Amino acid sequence: MKYSLFICCLIFLSACSSNENKKVENDPKDQTPSYKQAAVKKSGVATMIKLPAQLFAYQEVSIFPKVNGYVKNVNVDIGSEVREGQLLMVLDAPEIVQAVAQAREK
Predict the structure, then answer these.
(1) Which of 13, 17, 35, 73 could anchor a disulfide with 90, C-beta 3.0 to 4.6 Å?
(2) pTM for the complete prediction?
(3) Which whole-number Å values give the CA distances from 36 to 26, 32, 33, 39, in the listed order?
């Protein structure tokens, strides 16, 4: 009887002990994660975004000739930077040339 009581106490105590010290081999919490490694390469950015937009000049001026005529020569392109007094285009006005010729005849 003494031994049976002693064995019962041992079984009881072993059942009450914690399982913290016991390791389970297939427990995913205890395994260290493994990661794949890749080499770093230097390259440009491959992302391109197309968005609708409008571009306006810093300063815009409308140009009107003093006489009516035909454009003979254009010295600048659209969007070119110009300075004050710069010749932009040459006009041909045959009516004015004819009027000047008639005025000289008199």
Answers:
(1) 73
(2) 0.38
(3) 22, 13, 10, 10
